[in-house]
Amino acid sequence: LVHDDLRTFLDTNLPKEKKRAKMILGVADSRIASAINEHFSISCQHTGVIPELLRGLRLHFPNLVKGLTDQNQSKAQLGLGHAYSRAKVKFNVNRVDNMIIQSIALLDQLDKDINTFSMRIREWYGYHFPELIRIISDNYTYARVVYLMKNRKEFTINHEEELEAITMDSGKTAAILIEKNLQSIMKKNWKQLQWIAGKQRQFSKQ
């Protein structure tokens, strides 16, 4: 705990060993007090009035040291804080490996979640537009098409360019539009066929 700089400072400023027996050195930390006592054989105290004296020294420190300004003191305190933090933080050689392992595990979990959500979208939207599953195989493209179309009954040919920008395939775009309109086309044709069939029955009766 007793750094070389602290040892040099105490050797320079403390009296000789014969006079140290009558002295009491005020220290802020109990562990440092014990270490100084072992190295220099001097009585140390960290309780009582010592905290108040140290607080007063910190408050009036720029006045006690010549040439020390508040700005220099702030820089010195910042440098001391950084040095203390670097000394306390230990480098873990396995830390980088742990981050890589966790990242790979996170990517795997995200991939599983995305696949699950994609299957849910295909399943749920498939009840509304089952033909789309056969046309679009890519999950990401399928989700974008679903987001664009929403209700197939309200989707018009005016969105053809947007749809082709998503599918990047004019053939798939045409297939989607055909499948989308196939039901309405069949209904219209079915009405015409019913009308034709009805006319034929009338002629056959005549």
From TrEMBL:
GO terms for molecular function: snoRNA binding. One of its GO terms (cellular component) is box C/D methylation guide snoRNP complex. Residues 99-151 form the NOSIC domain. Belongs to the NOP5/NOP56 family. This is NOSIC domain-containing protein. It comes from Rotaria socialis.
